[in-house]
Specification:
The protein is mainly α. It has four helices and no strands. Helix 1 (2-35) packs antiparallel against helix 2 and helix 1 (2-35) runs parallel beside helix 4 (108-137). The protein is elongated, with a radius of gyration of 18 Å. The N and C termini lie far apart (48 Å).
Length: 142
Amino acid sequence: MFAIGIGVCISLMNIAVHAVFTVVMVRTVRRDAERLSQPNVVFREVLIMIIAAAILMLAHLIEVWIWSLFYRLLGVTPDSSADFDFAFINYTTLGYGRLVPEAPWQVLGPMTAMNGVLLFGWSTAVLFQVLAVSARRFGIRY
């Protein structure tokens, strides 16, 4: 039960990080969309999507790092030098490979995966929204 509480706290930290990065990304994309004066609308659209995806990728890397930091602090893995790899594997729902968490912390692997799935879904929805909003701004119909 304690491990679940820890997992919920880490997940909420990551949700806060993702919220901050989403707001930054939306503001950045909005600002850049307004400043871009290229006559080529396709170039603008591509640039906006690259900026949005890059910001969200950075958010995901920070979120994986947060999981790995707590893995290290809690002694979740037998080899603490692999905490980042293990967090990344769980966050992306790739599945266990050579590392398995220590017995009291085994629930953190699935909780990390649940957090990753939620935040990847959030990112997908945000990217779709950015595409839709910028397309309307530039008068593009898909």
